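Milestone M4 deliverable, item 7.
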Amino acid sequence: MLKRTVFIAGLMLTAFVGSAAAQQASAPVDLTVQDIALQEQIDIYDQTIRVATGQLFNQSDIPYTNILLSAAVFDEDDQQIGEGFGYLVDSCGAGLLPGFVLRAEHSQSFEVPLELYQPDAAINRVEVVPQASAIEAGDSAAFELPDGFTQVTDEEVVEVEWNGPRSLRYATGCGRDLFIDWSWNSYSTITGTARPAEHPSAEHVTNALRERLGLTDPLLFNHSLIRYAPSGTRMVFQNHINTVYTAAADGTLLRALFSSLTNRTLQNIYWLDNDRFLAYYFGAYGDPVYYFTADAEGRFISPSPLNNQESVIVPGASRDGRRVIIAGTFDDGTGYYLNVLTYSFFERLFEAELPGNNWPAPLPIVDTGADLVVRVYVAREQDGAPVIQCFNRDEGVLHDLAALPLDLTESDRAQWWLSPDERTIALAANGINGGLWLIDLDSLPACQN
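Output delivered:
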């Protein structure tokens, strides 16, 4: 169910970690509460409740688990007028299991629903006290990154856009939110530094644009999945019945694409070269994936998604959008297949056990001279561990390259993006083990015998 949230403006709240007497083994002094705010949310019974939100930061070198939070609510006379008990949440507000481990030097969002003794009482401040169990050294070993891997952040990363071969921007937040609601950062692979940034297309999303697109209703606006092409000149969105449109940056010059998708859930728009894109659909983990490719001018590249071969995984499209790598069980057995969308060509590349539709899509590499897919990078599990592999189509051989720092639950998502010079992969994941990593392909074993 969609959780509707209203921020209460003009209210200054102070976060406390408790008095000295409260700082015992169950209330560690090195867990600090930050950025506390008060919200109004609509619960599952459609009732308005007040919730204290914020970040819990572990400033020690010890990981913690079994984390709970309690809150005391006070009025301006410093009289307690309410209380609450809360939990850690992910970027979409879903509660984390008690076994979640808050790593050293890491923060995590929390929510504490508040119960006021008098419903109309005026809140002046909220004190939040964390309780947790320390994990002994060695009980929570960190993944050791292979050679050629660099971790950019351990936040939940949901989108990456390359600006050039050595720079990119990435977004953190809830994957189902609009791009204007994400927190964006710019990152340079030369300096290894990230800094907060505004998305260059955010300025186009105005009330006038929403009126032109028929998205003035907040629920329809959130459903639209607006995405701007890397050039910033045009955009893609869906309307209330899931018809996909492209439009100019200001919402004019609308062009409809596919309208037979009323019962499909658009999961993402994955941008390719020259404002081409892959759109893909599925309902939940384990569902078949439907897809199509087109460009931001509203020109079809592939047939309708209902006429393309279904895939078990998210398809990986070539930069021109004419070819995709899908996976499933077809006439030649279970494995990864090359599907040329612009004419009838379907070839099994290799046999393999398949990951779910929450894993990164394959990355096909095209020899521009021969105009052929020559190798394909895939992310999948091998012997229970996530790995990156490379299929050499000339040899017909799948090469193991390195272990991947992924630890995905069924509700988590991971995706990756190839740099313009095809030498670096940006791997991103959301969820409690999310993050962003750069993979230097020149540092990995060669994709050949």
